[in-house]
Amino acid sequence: MSKTDLKTQLAERFREVNGDHPMTDADDVYVSTQFVALEELCAVHGRDADEVRRLMLGQRLPLPGYLRSDGAEMVPADLFALADDAGGLEPLEAWFTAHWADPVTGKAEWDAYLSGQYVCLHSVTPAAIRRKDHLTTAISAAENEPDAGSAQWYERLHELIDELDALEPAFTAYDRLRFAGPTSRDTCIDAMRTRFPRP
Q1: Which of 16, 74, 100, 169 is the most buried (most CB within 10 A)?
Q2: The model's pTM
């Protein structure tokens, strides 16, 4: 199979998962600062880009996070790090899903990881995914806590928001199109800081 065919197949699969939304100049700039082109990353790591595309299409590695306007498949700089941590591609899925006590949740998170849509984290690891889930849940529920509005509550809330802020990149307009609405940064960081500013 030719490089063009694999690149085309991967682009088609990406659009199946994310929808077909235009990337603006601002989206391209954002993506180029936060991610790296697959070809460049493979060159740095001495890997064959077509083989990595096959692994993505075979659901062994996550899909690209973005397709830049010029067609470049944009991936995280640490794309290969999780497989290294797991001891290789073969044990990666079992190693990954074992981070959740519930196998169904673990499988759902694995599928989400393979989709390439975990662009909401600077580094996509099971620990970071679990921490983000904990933080977004706690922040969303904060206003219903018994001591809501107290000084201690404000302090707790802003510690949670600050921690989530450190885990998450800025996102871009394209993300709001493919996720059909606001991002977790919009709802759990920016909106909460506006609604509940530091005293």
Answers
A1: 74
A2: 0.91
